[in-house]
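Weekly puzzle thread! Below is a chain. First person to post its structure in token form gets bragging rights.
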Amino acid sequence: MNARRVPVSPQAAMTEADYASAFGIARPCGDVRTAEWWARALWEDASLPTRWFLLAGWRGVLGLRLSPRSSPRRVLGWAITRSTPELVVLDASSPLMAARNVIRVDGDDLVWTTQVRFLRPLARLVWAPAALVHERLVPRALTRVTQDPAARKHRRVTAFQRRVLNPLTRALPFQTLLETTGRTSGLPRRTPIAGRRLGDEFWFVSEHGDRSQYVRNIRAQPRVRVRIAGRWHAGTAELLRQDDSRARLDKLPKMNSAAVRAVGTDLLTVRVDLDR
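Winning reply:
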């Protein structure tokens, strides 16, 4: 579920605001956490580079006066001026502008509203480029914080694999590779894997199950190729949802199995029946 732009609510509205925007996203099913919990998750639980970026923009560009540290009455330097289970109001100001962020639990949705009042003519010029950045960051932050932990872990792991690990290991001549057919593009897609050949079968465990792009490709087209010890073998892949994937890892190469257990989110056993 992605964040979307929503109407600005009059709840906790700033008097004579010159700028206002609001974004909302569905909360996880059954969620009972307070608005202040969500505010801290959005800002204080963000990655360190993200927190540095936010603070640099707030202080260095907008000139907002923020507390140097968080406390029960502040969220990443912003003063909590009102807090109920359904709503938290965060205020900060500078000689140029006054700013307010309202994090609100609205039924099944989480809503982030931002309002800015210009105190000097220069404020409009300063805020214009900042607003563009703000309106890109807020939906991403809402999407990040409402994802389940497995989805966040999957996103971090796959980003590292896609940008760093896979390009390096694909270049190794004896790296085992799985070649699937892109379900949309129709082009061959090669993914480094590790597993074990048993006769005319090749077994491995996908660490992210149905989230893995190659698993989705297999669902659309089970004909694949596997490069084993430098040689390509054609075959048909089968997704074995009833197999005990953790027990299966005990029968596969130990080093890779340890890595799959460490980074995996939804383990899924895959068997490739190799053509004879």
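Puzzle host: Confirmed. Bonus trivia for everyone else. Residues 205 and 269 are 4 Å apart (CA to CA).
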